[in-house]
């Protein structure tokens, strides 16, 4: 397992012996969070255990830890969804329920399936579904929009099929839906589409869900600044995961990298204050990071977000625009460290909360691994070398912008 020296940047910052990022140490954090604790939905007992673990790790390093509680809309699914093709053949499918999907009636929804293309407004214009189940491909618009358009057309439920091979991936609708919403895997979607092209298809769907107000928390470790303590640089990763996924890559990997950054910077002075943050309820719509931004008491001068940094070939640098923010300086720091990176535009993680407040950001990640939000997002898939690279880059970048 390789480690990367933070030589160039930390030497400039005054560190006599640059520390090294340990992929092995980071991997141990991933093991604890994804294997010992497991799925960590916000507001659950498992999430509380995860916050206790992260708090203990920060405190062992000597940091002051400030938990930040916030309210949110809790979602749970007591039982796995049941989706069965009734005609033209009988077949049990393997759906994933969308977060904030409403439940079906006790006896489920049994109805004809109707192909609505991508489920866009123009796809449904003039159509009346009246109790039928909409069948839509993934892509182009949000899941919540597909559900809203289908509900407006009178659908009793909507089935979205994934647009890439692999298991069905859940996602968030941000707010409770009017109709039940599930996703099916790509291969099952192709079969349903072929049957629909040949004739009528009937399905039976049963979903049980719970939605209620609860509280969760961010975990904030504080490194006081030496000369500009009223200004803060944030390096963070979301701690929650989507059940039933163990969330190894999404996002125990990012949290592990943040813990490793905190270890690397214990003895490195920074002019600005640094907050190491494990955010809660990211999977429910960036709730924890939005709360942090709305209730900040210091001037946030930069934010480094780590989300899914443990699988695939190399690190990616993103923000919503694909340019500006901290993208240029992150690319320069990566070059000095000999870390290969690619740039692209991407939102959909906690950095977006900071971007909305005008804070320069960079999102360090490795892209879609094909199994996030599924039970296949496991520890065995995590590459410690990528963890070390992500932690090294984030630590050096924090020193660069916090000095």
UniProtKB/TrEMBL annotation:
Entry keyword set: Hydrolase, Signal
Protein name: M20/M25/M40 family metallo-hydrolase
Pfam family, one: PA
Domain PA stretches: 110-192
SUPFAM superfamilies to which the protein is assigned, alphabetical: PA domain, Zn-dependent exopeptidases
Signal found in the keyword field: yes
Residues annotated as domain Peptidase M28: 218-397
One BP term from GO: proteolysis
Signal sequence range: 1-21
InterPro entries with a match to the protein in the record: M28_fam, PA_dom_sf, PA_domain, Peptidase_M28
Gene3D superfamilies membership: 3.50.30.30, Zn peptidases (3.40.630.10)
Organism (species): Candidatus Segetimicrobium genomatis
């Amino acid at each position: 397992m390789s480690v990367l020296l933070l030589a160039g940047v930390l030497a400039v910052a005054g560190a006599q012996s640059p520390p090294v990022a340990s992929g092995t140490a980071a991997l141990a954090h991933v093991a604890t969070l994804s294997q010992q604790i497991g799925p960590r939905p916000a507001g659950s007992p498992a999430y509380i255990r995860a916050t206790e673990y992260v708090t203990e790790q920060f405190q062992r390093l000597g940091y002051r830890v400030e938990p930040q509680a916030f309210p949110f809309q809790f979602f749970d699914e007591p039982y796995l969804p049941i989706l069965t093709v009734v005609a033209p053949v009988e077949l049990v499918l393997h759906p994933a329920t969308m977060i904030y999907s409403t439940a079906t009636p006790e006896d489920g929804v049994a109805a004809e399936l109707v192909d609505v293309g991508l489920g866009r407004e123009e796809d449904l214009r003039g159509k009346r579904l009246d109790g039928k189940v909409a069948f839509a491909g993934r892509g182009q618009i949000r899941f919540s929009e597909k559900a809203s358009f289908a509900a407006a057309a009178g659908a009793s439920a909507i089935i979205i099929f994934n647009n890439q091979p692999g298991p069905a991936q859940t996602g968030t609708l941000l707010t409770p839906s009017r109709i039940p919403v599930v996703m099916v895997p790509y291969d099952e979607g192709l079969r349903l589409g072929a049957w629909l092209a040949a004739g009528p298809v009937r399905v039976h769907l049963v979903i049980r869900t719970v939605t209620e107000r609860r509280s969760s928390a961010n975990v904030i470790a504080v490194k006081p600044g030496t000369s500009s303590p009223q200004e803060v640089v944030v390096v963070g990763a979301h701690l929650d995961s989507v059940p039933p996924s163990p969330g190894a890559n999404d996002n125990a990997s990012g949290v592990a990298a943040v813990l490793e950054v905190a270890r690397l910077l214990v003895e490195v002075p920074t002019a600005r204050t640094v907050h190491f943050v494990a955010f809660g309820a990211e999977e429910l719509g960036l709730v924890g990071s939005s709360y942090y931004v709305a209730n900040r008491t210091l001037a946030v001068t930069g934010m480094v977000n780590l989300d899914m940094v443990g699988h695939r070939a190399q690190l990616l640098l993103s923000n919503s625009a694909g340019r500006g923010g901290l993208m240029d300086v992150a690319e320069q720091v990566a070059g000095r460290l000999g870390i290969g990176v690619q740039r692209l535009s991407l939102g959909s993680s906690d950095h977006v909360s900071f971007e909305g407040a005008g804070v320069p950001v960079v999102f360090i990640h490795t892209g879609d691994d094909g199994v996030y939000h599924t039970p296949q997002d496991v520890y065995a898939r995590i590459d410690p070398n990528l963890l070390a690279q992500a932690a090294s880059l984030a630590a050096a970048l924090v020193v660069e912008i916090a000095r």
